[in-house]
Amino acid sequence: MSARCYKIESRAKDIEVQPADRSDFATSAGRKCAPDLVLSAPGWSPYCIDAKLRELIFVRLPENVDLSLAAFYSVTQFREAQELVAMPLDDLPGLCAALPEPKLILVFSIGRCGSTLVSHLLRQPGRVLSLSEPSVFDATPFPGHQKPLRLSPDLLRHLAQLHLAAAKTTAGTLAVKFKSQSLFIADSYVTAFPDAKYVFLYRDALTWTNSFFQFLQGIGFPENMDRDSRAIHWNILTAEHPMDYLGRYVDLDADHVHLDRLQPVVWTLYLETYLRLLAHGVPWLA
Fold this sequence. Notes:
Low-confidence stretches: none
Largest sheet: 6 strands, antiparallel
Radius of gyration: 19 Å
Mean pLDDT: 94
Distance between the termini: 42 Å
Strand content: 15-25%
Number of helices: 9
Number of domains: 2
Number of strands: 13
Structural class: alpha/beta
Shape: globular
Order of helices and strands: EEEHEEHEHEHEHEHEHEHEHE
């Protein structure tokens, strides 16, 4: 196995909630390290996958930071990380060979519907390790970032093992609350984890639209969107779902479209995706 460790010297992101990326950190020159460092030493946790280099990135946080208490797992990692380890994905089978496979509760949602609260309610020290939006599971694109790696069943299982093992917990169950866009790849999780418990959280269209509108305003997203910002908004929230779906409801040739015209379409797509997956056998608890 080969792994390299780096000291984090600075960090920068446009928006803290965007998917984790290796480029979030400027680091020192790397040094070789033992791959099992991320399991034997305290404070390490998986951060993201570098799809281009096919490496899993771990970060080390201070020992007093409990990621199971974080509202957003990867945001806390970004703020607190002190060191970084890069490990080839090909080394994961050997690293995980002796690790237990946790029971799983997988929480999907349309966002802005109380999923963070549900994630914390699932937390039971010593029994259930519950994590809110660990970015390493994301396989959805984000503008300006490299295309994500397709998460194979084996890779997903290794990621679940590593999150449980790195947390140094006696819990046998791992609960993961995903970003809303992960709904569009939920079938990948069903293939990898047929025995997991699947939860789907949603909210009525009007209050969801109002909540999302306030959130987007808070991060500076334009209210009246030109074609470029409209495409960015659609691609982020729908994991690059074809825009002809949006064209059923909105004039794609219009120079500007108000945000309140797009949000109900996104809500409809989320609910239609849930119903499609339900019809194909995903055992949702909605």
